[in-house]
């Protein structure tokens, strides 16, 4: 073989080797895995002008929620021990998830003290498309009036309450695989056993029936049938630890306070950014012109609430509300804004 032919053969082999190493080389599993990851990032904040207490924890969760059953599955979680006050950055990483018509995905966040007490929480679920998230998301948390259930975690998942409205009746429901507890007006609660049904989830008890089909339900109680009951997810986000749905929510500033009125049950009050928490008995309100007046007391606490149906703007956030609220506690008067959640 001539020198020229030998040289051409060597060059050809070198080219084939180079092509094999570059174009046909398989991508490692690690690199493929990194390309498949999805990310949601943003900030956690709240509107109060106050520093975080020491030893607090910020928790952000991405959940997959079954709209029919109300059950949830955790997709991603980040727990942060912040070294500074808000805004606090977060970043969730997870694998792409299949999208289904009867499921939604949402973000929730909480700030908790070292002893587990809930300080701030999201009150409305932030819905997202996990496979096409926005570049950045801000989660604005609200002060927790009373210690609510914590977000689900891998060890223990607390019950998720639903709120249903049936024309002139509102109630909440907490379910488990074989039963459901209904939290009805006047502080009444009933636990029903699940029974066989052609569709949906049906529960029965003594003189009471609850039949849930997605976001709609039928309630029969005391011989009366409520045919068109529908879920109100905004009210679900504001249920206190008692599980009865909140009918009116108001807030004010300097110092921060929150009022939650649970019709027929309790009036919950938080003062001075959570340093003082009081639950007072429900008393039927009075009316004066277009205003609604609540007067209640317990022990040394005497509370008067005047709700006027006039437009109101929060002095710190600029958020618009439908009602002006005057709160009188002992000899002090506070002003703020509120909205009816009915």
Automatic annotation (TrEMBL):
Signal peptide: 1-22
Keyword entries, A-Z: Lipoprotein, Membrane, Palmitate, Signal
InterPro entries to which the protein is assigned, alphabetical: Lipoprotein_YbaY-like, MliC, MliC_sf, Pilotin
C-type lysozyme inhibitor domain residues: 175-225
Organism encoding this protein: Nitrosococcus watsoni (strain C-113)
Gene3D superfamilies in the cross-refs: 2.40.128.200
Highest taxon of the lineage: Bacteria
Protein name: C-type lysozyme inhibitor domain-containing protein
Pfam families named among the record's database cross-references: MliC, YscW
């Amino acid at each position: 073989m001539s020198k020229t032919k030998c040289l051409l053969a060597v060059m050809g082999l070198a080219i084939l080797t180079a092509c094999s190493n570059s174009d046909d080389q398989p991508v490692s599993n690690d690199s493929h895995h990194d390309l498949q990851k999805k990310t949601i990032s943003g900030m956690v904040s709240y509107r109060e002008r106050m520093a975080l207490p020491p030893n607090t924890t910020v928790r952000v969760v991405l959940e997959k929620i079954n709209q029919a059953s109300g059950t949830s599955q955790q997709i991603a979680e980040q727990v942060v021990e912040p070294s500074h006050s808000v805004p606090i950055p977060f970043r969730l990483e997870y694998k792409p998830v299949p999208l289904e018509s009867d499921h939604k995905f949402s973000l929730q966040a909480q700030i908790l003290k070292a002893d587990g007490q809930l300080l701030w929480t999201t009150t409305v679920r932030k819905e997202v498309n996990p496979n096409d998230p926005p570049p950045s998301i801000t989660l604005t948390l609200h002060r927790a009036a009373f210690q609510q259930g914590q977000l689900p975690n891998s060890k223990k998942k607390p019950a998720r309450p639903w709120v249903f409205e049936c024309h002139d009746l509102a109630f909440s429901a907490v379910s488990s695989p074989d039963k459901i507890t209904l939290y009805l007006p006047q502080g009444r609660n009933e636990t029903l056993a699940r029974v066989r049904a052609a569709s949906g989830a049906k529960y029965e008890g003594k003189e009471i029936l609850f039949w849930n089909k997605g976001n709609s339900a039928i309630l029969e109680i005391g011989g009366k049938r409520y045919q068109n009951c529908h879920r109100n997810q905004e009210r679900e986000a504001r249920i206190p630890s008692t599980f009865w749905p909140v009918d009116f929510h108001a807030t004010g500033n300097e110092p921060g306070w929150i009022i939650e009125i649970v019709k027929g049950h309790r009036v919950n009050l938080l003062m001075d950014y959570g340093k003082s928490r009081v639950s007072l008995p429900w008393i039927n309100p009075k009316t004066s012109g277009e205003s609604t007046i609540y007067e209640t007391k317990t022990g040394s606490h005497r509370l008067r609430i005047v709700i006027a149906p006039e437009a109101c703007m929060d002095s710190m956030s600029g958020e618009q509300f439908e009602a002006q609220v005057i709160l009188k506690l002992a000899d002090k008067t506070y002003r703020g804004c509120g909205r009816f959640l009915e």
